[in-house]
Amino acid sequence: MRRTAFERLVAEALRGLPEEFRSKLVNLAVVVEDRPTRRDLQRASLPPHTTLLGLYTGVPLTERGSNYGGVLPDKIVIFKAPIEALCRTDDEVRRMVQETVRHEIGHYFGLGEAQLATHSPSKRTSRTMLS
């Protein structure tokens, strides 16, 4: 899939979030990269032989106090190559992008892996696949 088409899927996933969540996305950049770097993998603290589909870095909303301000945007990276490697069709890619975006947005809202795993529509979106 071309990068522009993949980026459109990420944008579509963001637009598909309920308004009550979209309206709270402040100081957040969402980007697409081909694959995670070594630093990304270290930051995610994943066990060996796992796949990283997305990564959230920043200060979750639940940890932002009155002194929060003047900081660089939080960042969500969606990794194109690992998602495509796990999917056979464009529809599967679309669903995986949506799940990955929702998962990483969950981290932005302060949810941990255990909380996200209980709300995941797919068994594939677990700690072994997403950060």
Structure in a nutshell:
The chain has 131 residues and is of the alpha+beta class. The protein has helices at residues 3-15, 19-22, 38-44, 80-86, 90-108, 113-118, and strands spanning 28-33, 54-57, 74-79. Helices cover 43% and strands 12% of the residues.
What would your notes on this structure say?
This protein has 131 residues and is an alpha+beta fold. The chain has a single domain, classed as 2-Layer Sandwich (Zincin-like). Helix content is 43%, strand content 12%. The protein starts with a helix and ends in a 13-residue tail after the last helix.
Give the topology, please.
Elements: H1 3-15, H2 19-22, E1 28-33, H3 38-44, E2 54-57, E3 74-79, H4 80-86, H5 90-108, H6 113-118
Helix pairs in contact: 1-5
Supply database-style keywords.
131 residues, alpha+beta, Zincin-like, three-stranded mixed beta sheet, 6 helices, disordered C terminus
Give the number of DSSP strands: 3
Would you tell me the structural class of the helices and strands?
alpha+beta
Q: Which value, in Å, is the CA radius of gyration?
A: 14 Å
What coarse outline follows from CA principal-axis ratios? globular
Stretches where pLDDT is under 50 for at least 5 consecutive residues are 121-131
Helix percent band: 40-55%
CATH topology term:
Zincin-like
Give the termini separation.
23 Å
How are helices and strands ordered from N to C? Answer: HHEHEEHHH
The count of helical stretches stands at 6
> If classified by CATH, what would the architecture be?
2-Layer Sandwich
Instruction: Round the mean pLDDT to the nearest integer and report it.
Output: 87
Major β-sheet, in short? Answer: 3 strands, mixed
Question: If strands are numbered along the chain, what order do they take across the biggest sheet?
Answer: 1-3-2
